[in-house]
Amino acid sequence: MTDGTVGLPAAPPVCARHTDRVSYVRCQRCGRPACPECVVEAPVGVQCVDCVREARRSAPAPRTVFGAPLRGGRPLVTLSIIALCAVSYLLQLVLEWETWTSRLAFYPPLGDVEPWRFLTGAFVHSDAPWHVLLNMYALWIVGPQLEAAFGRARFLALYLLSAVGGHTLVVLLASLASLDWYTATVGASGAVFGLFGAFFLAMRRLGRDATGILVILGINLVLGFVAPNISWQGHLGGLVTGVVVGTLYAYAPRTRRTAVAVAGTVVVTAALVGLVVARYALF
């Protein structure tokens, strides 16, 4: 007769998150038991929800070719600009010229004492509905794509700088003896031209055919020279500014995208301000 002890049976494994549930399935990453409610199918085996959550938290956020975070949903910046222009146009119809439009329109003689006009002039339009409708339609064509590609902050900077760049060229090319100096400029055309210029560069950066964009830009630039009441200076200034800013955003080195975008935006802004200050100093 032998004397010994009989081992007790091992307790069945239980889910790490639900200790009242027996589970013989283990996470492929951490090895802990997990009940059916706490497992997620993986390429090989299953993983517990805690490991999946941790992997998602530590994984790099997906980004576009230009470094912008991939976002679903609506293009908020584009829609906001369209909404502001639409509300502004309605106010133009309701209020007197002196009450609304004249306070926001870009007017060269007042640009040095009321510099906000370089920006607000892009949010008012002529009384003709086709003006605001065409500009907003053009914005809707390229705006959502550029906003998704560059990100909201860079897209907004591109739009606003293109608007300012358009009015800057108006000041640079106008003289006190010309009617251009005493003519108010309104419309988002300069900003839209800047977007088209940047869109062309983005398409080229991706290796896609951008001939259609060139045709659209060419036709509209010609119309600016031959059609009455169109500021070709504003169109050209917005286009040039958009091309410069678009080049910075589209071709920045991958490891220095943020630095190039911030520094480039500051430099372009400073350059536009410097040109305007120097021009007004000559009058």
Break the fold down into its secondary structure elements and pairings.
Layout: E1 39-41, E2 46-48, H1 49-58, H2 76-94, H3 101-104, H4 117-120, H5 129-150, H6 152-173, H7 189-205, H8 211-226, H9 232-251, H10 257-282
Antiparallel strand pairs: 1-2
Subcellular location: Membrane
Membrane topology: Multi-pass membrane protein
InterPro entries: Peptidase_S54_rhomboid_dom, Rhomboid-like_sf, Rhomboid_protease_S54
The number of helices is: 10
Taking strands numbered 1, 2, ... along the chain, how are they ordered across the largest sheet? 1-2
* Shape label: elongated
Poorly predicted segments: none
Rg, alpha carbons: 29 Å
Which fold does the CATH topology of the largest domain refer to?
Answer: Rhomboid-like fold
User: What is the CATH top level name of the largest domain?
Assistant: Mainly Alpha
Element order: H for helix, E for strand:
EEHHHHHHHHHH
Strand residue percentage: under 5%
Number of domains: 2
The CATH superfamily title of the largest domain: Rhomboid-like
Q: What is the first-to-last residue Cα distance?
A: 119 Å
Largest sheet: 2 strands, antiparallel
Mean pLDDT figure: 90
**How many strand elements?**
2
- Secondary-structure arrangement, i.e. CATH architecture of the largest domain: Up-down Bundle
Helix content: 55-70%
* Structural class by SSE content: mainly alpha
InterPro entries: Peptidase_S54_rhomboid_dom, Rhomboid-like_sf, Rhomboid_protease_S54
Domain Peptidase S54 rhomboid: 114-250
Pfam families: Rhomboid (PF01694)
GO cellular component, one term: membrane
